[in-house]
């Protein structure tokens, strides 16, 4: 599993699992030397990609260091857009061999009518998860993903993130968790990533992810969070349709970005302004 650490006061995730560096949180005071330090780390470890989330005011500086803008999240930083800037250190990683499929996924998702067409099925309920749910949460994630960018199958990781900045939600049937998701909150910027969606195989096709997403948006809006975004598998018709139907806007694609279920996959970025009705 990749590790999380710091360069200066900026937070990065890196490792061979995703074969990349991810600049998760930039401290502007670390620029521009941070770019050289990430280059050195990538060369030392042999990584093939660096990708970053940063204020758009740094876009030109990243571009001057051979980064490309793959996506943007409107008004993420107190009115300033976040740009997802990526640097490919191996030409093969920059080639999206599934581009036609990914384009069809977006076309299909955007063609769907917005809004939920059904209620939560009878006998099911949605609520925030607590520490009493940890063991069955870990079990759901273990059954859903062979591999994942973060150790969400580990009960200790779930407890730690729950105590920090992550709110987990679950769909339950007879008090058994059958679908999960999480809201990873960036309190400094009043933003949240909607992520970690998982539904047990026997309970798919019931629209549970859509209901989770709508409930999450309600809760985050009540907390005063302004901006929601997600990073969804580019090849997944289902999840991209979920975000489109729930009012999210497509913001771009991260090519060959994330190791999920044993393969490096491209990811789509979707955004929702929680301040808008």
TrEMBL record:
<dbReference type="InterPro" id="IPR000182">
    <property type="entry name" value="GNAT_dom"/>
</dbReference>
<protein>
    <submittedName>
        <fullName>GCN5 family acetyltransferase</fullName>
    </submittedName>
</protein>
<feature type="domain" description="N-acetyltransferase">
    <location>
        <begin position="124"/>
        <end position="270"/>
    </location>
</feature>
<keyword id="KW-0808">Transferase</keyword>
<dbReference type="Pfam" id="PF00583">
    <property type="entry name" value="Acetyltransf_1"/>
</dbReference>
<dbReference type="GO" id="GO:0008080">
    <property type="term" value="F:N-acetyltransferase activity"/>
</dbReference>
<dbReference type="InterPro" id="IPR016181">
    <property type="entry name" value="Acyl_CoA_acyltransferase"/>
</dbReference>
<dbReference type="InterPro" id="IPR022525">
    <property type="entry name" value="GNAT_AblB"/>
</dbReference>
